[in-house]
Amino acid sequence: MALGVDQMTITTGAVFVPELWSNRTLDAVEANLVMANLVDRYDDEFSQYGDIVRIPNVSDLSVNTKSANAQVTLNAITEVDTTLTVDQHKECSFVIEDILKIQSKYNLRDKYTNKAGYAIGKNVDAALHGLYAGLSQNVGGDNLFTKGLLLQAIQKLDDADAPEINRYLVIKPVSKANMLNLDDFTRYDALGEAGRGNPIRTGKLGDYFGVEVYISTQTIQVAGTPPVVHNLLFQKEAFGLAMQQSPRVQAQYVLEYLGTLVVTDVLYGFGEIRDTFAVDVRTNATSPAI
Q1: What's the CA gap between 225 and 213, in Å, rounded?
Q2: 128-187 pLDDT tens trace
Q3: What torsion, rounded to 10 degrees, do the Cα atoms 282, 283, 285, 290 define?
Q4: How far is residue 96's CA from residue 282's CA, in Å, rounded to a whole number?
Q5: Which of 162, 185, 241, 243 could form a disulfide with 277 if both were Cys (CB 3.0 to 4.6 A apart)?
Q6: Is 25 left (phi over 0), alpha (psi -120 to 50) or beta?
Q7: 181 DSSP 8-state letter
Q8: Residue among 126, 89, 120, 34 nearest 269 (CA)
Q9: C-alpha angle 87/275/178, rounded to 5°?
């Protein structure tokens, strides 16, 4: 016998089915911030006071021929200086009202304080990436990342007598994908990295031609046809960063809002110190063909 259409279903009994809230939260993803740890730091110069540090340049001296019965030729150089100015005061703030704090299942103050710290760090990192725009040296254009392109960039550092230590390449993930697609960067018999350490097995890029490789989505990409990625190859002394006030967190109860105000701020300066110690490695933002 047919029962008809009056069964109790998930729709009619919806009020009995609870909605559950996870004990975990799905936090926004965070970019890999690398630049601040790779550039030259001038924090100590601003530890007490001041807003500008002047870095005297010391030029090379010339060698002259000594003639008989003649005085030596003196080197007399009028030196200049390079300046680094602390003029970036950035903050990230929020208020959590009491009712939200009391009724929330989560410790929102801790979670958003961590996010504020990340936002400050991301701002500093982006500022350093943006220094590509002032560089006088560049290679590439609309081509993909290749070994030849990297070697051209390295040669520019060599020609500038940049120290071979503390050389870094910071690239976008699409550049990493193109590197991993090339035998030049992955073949163990060429790299001498057999087994688990090989990029073709691990997907990790390490040290190439004396240059440490870092991956960051913060690497600047400029819209166009095609879009151009401004990867950075540089020796540490190319760029300077001074943290006069490292990221700090302060909080106070605000009676007018019946809530807690949390402020994270930083005071810093950044700039190009040695122009010839850095190269803008321009590549196509196209992913490798599969």
Answers
A1: 27
A2: 999 999 999 999 987 888 889 999 999 999 999 999 999 999 999 998 888 887 776 765
A3: -170
A4: 44
A5: 162
A6: beta
A7: T
A8: 89
A9: 105
SS3 content of the chain, % helix, strand, coil (to 5): 30, 30, 40
The first and second tokens of residue 72, run together, are 């030596």
Coil vs helix vs strand at 188: helix
146 close to 183: Cβ distance less than 8 angstroms: no
**What architecture (CATH level 2) is domain 35-58+77-284?**
Alpha-Beta Complex (3.90)
Residue found by looking up tokens 């020796």 in the block = 235
Q: How confident is the model at residue 15 (pLDDT cuts 50, 70, 90)?
A: confident
Q: What contacts 40, CB < 8 A, 6 or more positions away?
A: 236, 237, 238, 239, 240, 241, 273
Own/partner long-range contacts of 109-117 (Cβ < 8 Å, ≥24 apart): 109/251, 109/260, 109/262, 111/25, 111/27, 112/262, 113/249, 113/262, 113/264, 115/27, 115/28, 116/92, 116/249, 116/262, 116/264, 117/247, 117/249, 117/264
- The pTM (predicted TM-score) of the whole model is 0.84
Most confident of 113-127, 172-186, 199-213: 113-127
